[in-house]
Design a protein that fits this description.
heterodimer; A: 76 residues; SH3 type barrels; elongated; B: Rossmann fold; 2 domains; 11 strands
């Protein structure tokens, strides 16, 4: 139920608060963007047809590096 | 988009956990976490490392009560068009299920989003469309957003939304199971942020970590909990910072406040939990199926609405037993012939166990 899929906004209609989201591999679907502030090119997390969060891609790229750092800090 | 499946790093984390030589039990409350844990065999690897993980009441379809199921069945029987997420349709009620009623001619539609249900109402102005609104804080804002945009008058919702923090508190208050930490659901947290969990660590001295859904997210989350236990800490940490911020999604919180108010509700397997559910505010009464069809639902009395005979979904949802410990599991109860909702929903612990684990 709380499954959410990341995708990229490739078209946006602010009036209807509807966006076209590209999930890769040719899969595109409309999503409601009334719960987020977005622009074309943003990556969003989509749940039950609604974008619920804008993804911080920089933070995402840094996650693995962060994990490694956290582990190395713990080494005795 | 992001691949957090680096095997070497996973092994590093596991060996670090093993080195601590602990025997701990953690609980998560999310079907997607359970899916990742079982699908990738992390549950087995972690057990070998001294960590047992139980899925608590983290499956919206599973915690929906037999009474709520009877309500929607009654509305279907009365000729309303029922729109629901797929899992809900197969959950058995006392005498029937939505799926069964569909074969008997009732108008039952599976939808992907509440917007599909609104569209159905727009396209069929003579039909009364009732959307069964289940889901936690992740899903409730989608219902709220739709109700704020004047859906047609032949549309209503049977509101069954529930809130996660009160359920976590209930698990601790009931005190039936010893827990050493909570793994908190990443997408509920996307909406509510970090603060609503703080009182749990403060009042109950229990470590918590918000985790994402990739294998490495969960392993790292477990490692953070182990570290807290070893250091004697009890705080809420955020492993899923690429998605979850301190304040959460404030637009979503705002629309939820506009549309819903908290109410005391029962969860399957639980007593009535204070302020753990949401109901529509008076302003939205015309969209509230319970008010709109009050006379239809009135005959429904709580007596006789019981859990299915022998079903231990309640114990599974309170984390007291694992799915495999239920005598019905894989015998009378299978995804083809489910007795309880935990075997129906793709987020139910029993369904996930059945799907991925060996006989």
């Amino acid at each position: 139920m709380c499954l959410a899929i990341p995708g990229k906004i490739i078209a946006l209609d602010k009036k209807t608060q509807s966006a076209t989201v590209d999930y890769g591999s040719g899969t595109k679907r409309n999503a409601n963007v009334s719960l987020v502030k977005v622009k074309i090119g943003d990556y969003v997390l989509v749940h039950a047809g609604f974008a619920i969060q804008v993804l911080d891609t920089k933070e995402a790229e840094e996650t693995l590096a962060l994990f490694r750092e956290m582990l190395s800090m713990e080494e005795p | 988009m992001f691949s957090l499946r680096d095997k070497q790093l996973a092994n590093d984390i596991l060996s670090r956990i093993k080195k601590e030589q602990v025997h701990l039990r953690f609980m998560h409350v999310c079907g997607t976490h359970q899916d990742t844990l079982v699908k990738h065999g992390l549950d087995v690897l972690l057990r070998d490392a001294g960590i047992e993980i139980r899925q608590g009441p983290g499956c919206p379809v599973c915690v929906t009560t037999p009474r709520e199921i009877e309500e929607i069945l009654l509305l279907a029987k009365a000729g309303k068009t029922i729109a629901s997420f797929g899992d809900m349709i197969r959950v058995p009620g006392v005498t029937s299920s939505l799926q069964q009623m569909k074969t008997e001619g009732c108008d039952i539609r599976t939808v992907y989003s509440i917007e599909d249900a609104v569209l159905l109402a727009k396209n069929h102005p003579k039909k009364e469309v009732v959307f069964m609104a289940v889901g936690f804080e992740t899903t409730a804002p989608t219902t709220a957003s739709v109700l704020l945009r004047n859906p047609p008058s032949n549309f209503s919702v049977l509101c069954c939304h529930r809130l996660i923090p009160p359920a976590l508190q209930a698990i601790l208050e009931l005190g039936e199971i010893k827990l050493d930490g909570f793994i908190q659901p990443g997408h509920v947290s996307t909406i509510i942020g970090i603060k609503p969990y703080e009182f749990i660590s403060r009042n109950y001295r229990i470590p918590q970590v918000i985790a994402g859904f990739e294998p490495l997210d969960l392993l790292m989350g477990v490692w953070l909990l182990v570290r807290q236990v070893q250091q004697g800490n009890a705080v809420i940490e955020n492993e899923y910072s690429r998605v979850v911020g301190l304040e959460g999604n404030r637009i979503a919180q705002q629309v939820m406040r506009q549309v819903f108010e908290p109410m005391d509700v029962t969860w399957r397997g639980f007593p009535k939990l204070p302020a753990s559910g949401l109901r529509l505010r008076k302003k939205f009464a015309s969209y509230d199926a319970r008010r709109k069809f009050e006379s239809l639902l009135e005959p429904l009395v709580d007596e006789g609405i019981a859990e299915p005979v022998g079903c231990l979904c309640g114990d599974v949802l309170r984390g007291l037993i694992s799915s495999k410990e239920c005598p019905l599991f894989r015998r009378e109860c299978t995804p083809g012939t489910p007795i309880g909702p935990c075997m129906v929903s793709s987020e139910g612990s029993c369904h996930i166990e059945y799907l991925y684990s060996k006989k």
